[in-house]
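PHOP2 phosphatase: structure, please.
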Amino acid sequence: MKFLLVFDFDHTIIDENSDTWIVRCAPERKLPNGLRDSYQPGHWTEYMGRVFVYLGDNGVKEDEMKRTMTTIPFTAGMIDLLGFIGENKELFDCIIVSDSNTVFIDWILKAADFHKVFDEVFTNPAAFSSTGYLTVQHFHAHHCAKCPKNLCKRKALKEFLDKQLERGVSYTQIIYIGDGGNDLCPVMFLKKNDIAMPRQGYTLEKRISQLAQSRSPVQCSVLVWSSAIDIMSYLKLLIKE
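Here you go.
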């Protein structure tokens, strides 16, 4: 009996958006208007690439970025929740599917000593170039019209589940914990026995309730959370059963 926990990262594990937090490293903690206005819907990764070039051009180094990123607060109750999951790893497999990047997530999880809680992280690959600039790439290519160009979370989740099946691992229940519009696609892939846990007041919760109103509700059960303690309470009940 094993459960799969799928976490988004920004505004779910951490209480901020890691990509916008990095702007604190910029001169006067802001980006020039021309750069800010260059974002096009569905092309966030390309936009962040330009942000990283701007930071590099302004002499922002890796250690300063790392220091800044590790000051992001975790969501209320999240430290307790991740501690609890870490103590019960025989029952829970745990993955992150995020539109952030490998460098940011790695820094934040390692600084808080939570990297061992997660079995895999699916996010945009990032690295520092020989000139010290942070570069970011698309996670994968996909054909999903609903998702941003660089990442369809449903595809990432499905491929992980297929690989696990090949290894002989199947899950009693999938619990998907997220907040954003790009979490709807994987939530719609979940089955009747699974649980979607949207963060209260965020886009995912609103989208799920819009679907219910238009009489095409998601198949899975829905449990809204405002603190990660709510998620922990549910997991404790699961274990007791």
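Notes: The longest helix spans residues 44-57.
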